[in-house]
Amino acid sequence: MRFIEDFPGTGLSAAKPGIIAALPLEAACFAKVDIGPRSHRVIEGSLLYYGGVGAENAARAARALMDLKVDALVSWGTAGALDPRLGPGDIVLPTEVIDHADGKRYSVNPYWHGVLGNKLHHKRIYSQGAIVSTRAVQSAPRQKAGLHRTTGAMAADMESAAIAAVAGTEGKPFIVIRSISDTAAMHIPQSAIHATDRYGKVSIPGLFAHLMKTPAELRHYPKLIRSLAKTKKSLREITELCGFDLCLGEAL
């Protein structure tokens, strides 16, 4: 298990976090700014980077933020529930990240984690346990149940392990802040997955083309749309409560 660098003794006066969002909706929930793929915006001293989906994009975003001299890295956005107890919009603040590809484990910064947990204590928050990063979307309940059983992780994403690896190499504090977008029992339609590009943008013609072939998938969309609405509300509330530095300044 690898531990990300602790805060004491850093001497940072105005900490500058780098927040990595894979999807446009995740970036929009952090701040209402115009931002394109593989680019960043500065919001009150924090750097928001919209990097795209998956480990490769996440690692590229993390390295770009290192070049911009950020003091810490944040894996921000949505996650799929593996633990059946988690519901839409629940906040996941894991203590550990598991890379499903190679089994490596990374611990988040305990000081920062503690401050965030205290700040968000009145919300529906799960702050004990792991998140696992996979190479593919976990779209079916059977997949999610299997991953939960083999890893013990409470949720899954596709970026956190890659970001943690860069933070560890650079000796920078790291944290994961995610909100549940789909429960362990929910299906993510294959039509949505196939119509979405590596930067999370949906091709409407592509979506309709897939739905023409698999019209039965339409039944999954109402629940997914309602779930995403709760997720977005939850993420916006986090920045309202914690500020754009996501409590990094308080953790120093």
Automatic annotation (TrEMBL):
Q: Which GO terms describe its cellular component?
A: cytosol
> Which CDD domains does this chain map to?
adenosylhopane_nucleosidase_HpnG-like
Question: Which InterPro entries does the UniProt record give?
Answer: Nucleoside_phosphorylase_d, Nucleoside_phosphorylase_sf
In this chain the Nucleoside phosphorylase domain maps to 21-193
Q: Which domain of life is it from?
A: Bacteria
As one GO molecular function, the record gives: adenosylhomocysteine nucleosidase activity
Task: List the Pfam families hit by this protein, alphabetically.
Answer: PNP_UDP_1
Please provide the Gene Ontology terms (biological process) for this protein.
L-methionine salvage from S-adenosylmethionine; nucleoside metabolic process
Q: Could you tell me what this protein is called?
A: Hopanoid-associated phosphorylase
Source organism: Candidatus Kentrum sp. TC
